[in-house]
């Protein structure tokens, strides 16, 4: 009897706690009805033709005890979002700075190749090597030089732990049961709070506050770092948008965290998938190697589409099949004209609004657009292929064929930097070595994790063999 009482009380407490947490953290955009859109033409109507209506994201599905609108991706569409986003796009991500970035990229890629060279002839699990190298590059862009080793490795470890914890979350917005969702968010939120606390600890005292005090955490990379730009940035005040204020330390810390995550994790995901495909497709790998080697010998190593068209095609093919961020999500309330436009495509947004999830992976594998969509065939992006001329970010008057960087007002601002990093690392990896399936003949597992980041479920293990000079 006692045991039954205890069980009943515990269950009642869990449900009460879950409801209480939900109430106290309630937000109009949290856990609304979710509509999935996999059709690129409907995505065009929504994200491009009605971009304003599709310009907000729902609140993250997990309640936390703190305001989490400190990042570009979670700020509501409006003046503060505009201020921090344009600080990024006109600052560090500007195309004209690619020349400066090229030097940093080349140094990072060469370090990666050197680190791997002692494993030539062996099987390696690539993920940690690539993660460290891409993180190091993005951190230099974020902070400049001079961050000490210990602080860097705490940041990298925090990012790895966050990534690991996100793998266990299965599309929370798509979990249909109300109770499951409540219990799940109740169980998961302390882990998120824990990560946010760590972001504060790892970034604020050693980096943000130290730089604010003017301590020379060194910035000898020859351009203004992202951190420096954030410390100078003025954003509209919450209560009066006509007055400006500086960002608070925790906001700067969170924006740096977002920059490091956006810059590192998508490139890491894409590089791992690409090497996995190249290891089982030696002809494609050899063709890519020939193109890169040719450019190296001519001294024309610029990673652009014109100089290295096959490299560009290989990266596009990888992003088509495995968009690292699998969904572009919006929270919408719409008027009658938009309802009518979407209604033609049988998408009905309920009067209270909805979360709309554009499924980027489905668009890249749509067999109405792509021939044998599950095949890895970069040639489809070359002359005469169905993907030739495809644009990475959808615009007006153009059919959407794939959307790995999302679309509309909230599309990814890091397209140019992301593509440039991926191409540079990939070119150097393929130039230096040949990547083959592991010596024990183990099959590569092409399954992906079910989570917010579409990484390989089983971290890639490959054999590095030397390239004969040609
Ligand atoms: C291969 C590389 C990358 C891929 C595939 C990628 C993909 C995406 C996707 C799908 C979105 C959501 C877009 C939408 O909702 O329509 C996004 C948003 C975002 N990405 Fe990226 N990304 C990449 C690289 C980067 C880089 C290098 C940065 C910056 C350092 C970055 C920063 C951001 C930010 C700040 C947002 C939120 C934008 C907003 O809400 O206004 N990403 N990214």
UniProtKB/TrEMBL annotation:
- Note the Gene3D superfamilies from the entry: Cytochrome P450
UniProt keywords, alphabetically: Heme, Iron, Membrane, Metal-binding, Monooxygenase, Oxidoreductase, Transmembrane, Transmembrane helix
Q: Which residues make up the binding site for heme?
A: 412
* InterPro entries per UniProt: Cyt_P450, Cyt_P450_CS, Cyt_P450_E_grp-I, Cyt_P450_sf, Plant_metabolite_P450s
Statement: the UniProt record of this protein carries the keyword Plastid: no
Location of this chain's protein in the cell: Membrane
Q: Which PROSITE patterns match?
A: CYTOCHROME_P450
Question: Has UniProt tagged this entry with the keyword Iron?
Answer: yes
Q: Which GO cellular component terms are attached?
A: membrane
Per its record, what are the GO molecular function terms? heme binding; iron ion binding; oxidoreductase activity, acting on paired donors, with incorporation or reduction of molecular oxygen, NAD(P)H as one donor, and incorporation of one atom of oxygen
Query: Looking at the record's lineage, which domain of life comes first?
Result: Eukaryota
Tell me which cofactor or cofactors this protein depends on. Answer: heme
Topology relative to the lipid bilayer, per the entry, is:
Single-pass membrane protein
Q: Which family does it belong to?
A: Belongs to the cytochrome P450 family.
Q: What is this protein called?
A: Cytochrome P450
* Organism annotation: Digitaria exilis
